């Protein structure tokens, strides 16, 4: 059922035309070890090998291509969206200011600066950083590009869905790491338009999953953010969420929530298979290992969404006994 999908297959195909030259087609690899556990073929979509280390370049590039005449672009994300926006803006010769709080670690700040954007340090919280991004939009002619709840961002992420069905046309299920829902909304809109029978499964962590809590409540709610190994899946969905909440609600067939141990299991298993990914990208493998995500009814595609993890942290998780 593609009822209230507000980003359409046409939007996503137009996005692909727009961003084709700026993003990589990432590899799709079979996983014999996970296939054995899942009872059918498991494929790994290695999107962590995208430029800037995560799929977010797709949405950011599409959004930057569509901003029109602006003084620059801005956002308050310090993670993969901030990096993606910095890169996408530089590729188009547009200034970018990534707003962040004083608490953001130096390595994240350096990563943004290396990509040619200004890292603007404002206040002691992400909320204060966000107010600066709003001010830049209101007073200085910048376009504020949010990390997920924006039609051009969703359409850009949706190009990953087109690519997956090119590579595994008979996919029965796509498993997708879920936070704000831009990735899931886009991929599901593309995949269900082309293959209405395909199953879309979202995977989040048990600790602080804002979309899961919002779906339970029937409307966007705020919950306390907790520390998690899947740090790219943290954060709220926005109380004024317009697009990703209804799209995820209508397009997602199942949602699986994982413990921190299950996420670590997924990360270790993927590392043994040669895939060095961050916690958020390991949740789909963790769901297979937990026995809750199966491939009995046909090929299962797992999206490995990003690779940006502190190397010391990655090494420490590999050391832990599972
Ligand atoms: C942003 C992100 C996600 C979640 O994407 P949403 O669109 O917020 O649901 C998953 N994995 C990685 C690596 C990310 O950076």
What characterizes the major β-sheet? 6 strands, mixed
- Total count of helical runs of at least 4 residues: 13
Calculate the terminal CA-CA distance, rounded to whole Å.
39 Å
Please tally the β strands and state the result.
10
Identify the strand order in the major beta sheet. Answer: 1-2-10-7-8-9
Q: Domains counted in the coordinates: how many?
A: 2
Q: Kindly report the average pLDDT value.
A: 95
Write up what this structure looks like.
This protein has 322 residues and is an alpha/beta fold. It folds into 2 domains: 9-54 and 150-320, Rossmann fold (3-Layer(aba) Sandwich); 56-144, Rossmann fold (3-Layer(aba) Sandwich). The chain contains 13 helices and 10 strands. It has a 6-stranded mixed beta sheet, with helices on both faces. The radius of gyration is 18 Å and the shape is globular.
């Amino acid at each position: 059922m593609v009822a209230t999908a507000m980003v359409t297959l046409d939007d996503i195909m137009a996005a692909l035309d727009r961003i084709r030259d700026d993003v990589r087609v990432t590899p799709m690899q079979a996983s014999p070890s996970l296939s054995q556990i899942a009872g059918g073929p498991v494929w790994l979509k290695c999107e962590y090998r995208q430029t800037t280390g995560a799929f977010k370049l797709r949405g950011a590039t599409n959004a930057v291509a569509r901003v029109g005449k602006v003084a620059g672009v801005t956002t308050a994300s310090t993670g993969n969206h901030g990096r993606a926006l910095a890169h996408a803006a530089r590729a188009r010769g547009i200034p970018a200011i990534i707003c962040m709080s004083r608490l953001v670690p130096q390595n994240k700040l350096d990563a943004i600066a290396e990509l040619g954007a200004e890292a603007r340090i404002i206040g002691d919280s992400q909320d204060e950083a966000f107010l600066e991004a709003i001010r830049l939009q209101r007073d200085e002619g910048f376009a504020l590009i949010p990390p997920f709840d924006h039609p051009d961002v969703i359409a850009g992420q949706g190009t990953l869905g087109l690519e997956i069905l090119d590579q595994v046309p008979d996919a029965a299920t796509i498993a997708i790491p879920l936070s704000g829902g831009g990735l899931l909304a886009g991929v599901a809109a593309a995949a269900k338009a082309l293959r209405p029978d395909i199953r879309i499964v979202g995977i989040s962590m048990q600790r602080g999953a804002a979309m899961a809590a919002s779906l339970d409540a029937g409307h966007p709610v705020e919950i306390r953010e907790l520390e998690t190994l899947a740090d790219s899946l943290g954060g709220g969905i926005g109380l004024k969420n317009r697009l990703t909440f209804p799209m995820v609600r209508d397009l997602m067939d199942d949602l699986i929530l994982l413990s921190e141990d299950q996420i670590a299991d997924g990360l270790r298993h993927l590392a043994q298979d040669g895939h060095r990914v961050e916690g958020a990208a390991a949740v789909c493998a963790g769901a297979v290992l937990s026995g809750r995500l199966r491939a009995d009814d046909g090929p299962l595609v797992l999206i490995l969404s990003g690779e940006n993890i502190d190397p010391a942290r990655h090494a420490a998780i590999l050391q832990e006994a599972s």
